[in-house]
Write a structure and sequence with these properties.
376 residues; alpha+beta; Aminopeptidase; Alpha-Beta Plaits; 2 domains; 8-stranded mixed β-sheet; 9 helices; 18 strands; elongated
Length: 376
């Protein structure tokens, strides 16, 4: 493989979409075999990989997780290994996250800590499906994991700055897909049909007003209009159906439940008011990443004691992370790693993960694994 940065470059040049990470899976497994883990579990919940490094007499098992999938984009890129017809690229840094965990595997093989270590290479993070699929296999539960740690690069923060948050690190989110069905009719006689246009307009207004009334960080709830379709392109026909999609966000799972209730009840209200049949579904739902505060303190103190600078933002990040699924069963904490003040924001067309933070990030995770037994 050569230098660890070359691994990152290869992953960057061969991105694969959520659920199609076949070659990424094979590369990770090939690299891990050089590190001599006790066991490599392949195809976990799809293209997931779980590597286990056991230590005789260990009293604790600590897990670290990285995501491995890429994003669909609009740019034209040569993608020889992706079967999907969409263009794909690593514009969120998952290639870097994967490389950091591979470098951690090298460090563990060279200098094993006194605990068992589990490395989770997770597919399908961008769609919110991967962590749930891995958890549903039962493998992690069988490994008796005591705590799990996750991380994400954070642009516009100094290189290798450790970004911590007590309580919520990243918001909950969900796609709310609403469908409203009336009755088509000739455009010359709209009174003979049921056009859902007014209901769509009123829903957009109500959702916008709800967001404006819940923008305080203490009860943050946000709706973002993503897409709407009304009728069809036929000038002689009055629309008879509509679809409207919002992304909903909140800083706590409790507040997420509230905004979901608002969305479903508002849709029901529109159906009754305008005599429409309505239905909805929830897509790509991410619970909030709610950190264990003791583990957050531990990571903060470890960072400071070893010369890393730390920062705690005043509010959680508005983006979401399906690392939250692991926190439903295990103690855990999620951190950010600064990727540089000049780095483009996540999902920006010009974003590229900086190689400069790979070694520092892997070293920090290695420190965690070596001193975790000091926690009571």
């Amino acid at each position: 493989m050569g230098d660890i940065c070359e691994v990152r470059h290869y992953l960057h040049q061969h991105p694969e979409l959520s659920g199609a990470e076949h070659n990424t899976h094979e590369l990770i497994c090939s690299f891990l075999e050089r590190c001599n883990p006790t066991k490599i579990y392949r195809n976990v919940g799809g293209y997931g990989i779980v590597a286990v490094f056991e230590k005789a007499g260990a009293k604790r098992t600590v897990a670290f997780r990285a995501d491995i999938d890429a994003l669909p984009i609009n740019e034209t890129l040569p993608i020889p290994y992706c079967s999907d017809t969409k263009n794909v690229a690593h514009k969120c840094g998952h290639d870097g996250h994967t490389t950091i965990l591979l470098r951690l595997a090298e460090k563990i093989s060279q200098n094993p800590p006194s605990c068992n270590v589990v490395l989770i290479f997770q597919p399908e993070e961008e769609t919110g499906k991967g962590a749930k699929k891995i958890m549903q296999t039962g493998l992690l539960q069988s490994l008796h994991i005591d705590m799990v740690f996750g991380f994400h690069n954070i642009p516009q923060q100094p290189n290798s700055m450790i970004v911590v948050r007590h309580n919520t690190f990243a918001a909950a989110s969900a796609g709310f897909v609403a469908r409203l069905t009336g009755r088509q009719t000739h455009a010359a006689h709209p009174e003979n049909g049921i056009n859902p246009g007014l209901s769509v307009a009123e829903m957009i207004e109500k959702f916008d007003e709800y967001s404006r009334n819940h923008c305080n960080p203490e009860c943050f709830q946000q709706s973002t209009l993503i897409y709407t379709r009304l009728g069809e392109v036929a000038l002689g026909t009055s629309a008879g159906d509509a679809e409207i999609i919002f992304t909903l966000r909140a800083f706590s799972n409790k507040d997420m439940a509230e905004i979901l209730h608002f969305a479903s009840s508002t849709l029901s209200e529109m159906g009754s008011k305008y005599h429409l049949e309505t239905s909805y579904e929830i897509q790509e739902d991410f619970p909030a990443v709610e950190n264990d505060n003791e583990l957050t303190d531990f990571m903060t103190n470890t960072a400071i004691a070893n010369g890393y600078k730390t920062i705690e933002p005043d509010t959680p990040f508005r983006w979401s992370e399906d690392f939250s699924q692991y926190l439903t069963e295990f103690r855990g904490a999620f951190i950010g790693i600064g990727s540089g003040l000049e780095t483009k924001e996540l999902h920006h067309p010009d974003y590229d993960f900086p190689d400069a933070i790979i070694e520092k990030a892997a070293e920090f995770l290695s420190l965690i694994s070596h001193i975790i037994n000091t926690l009571h």
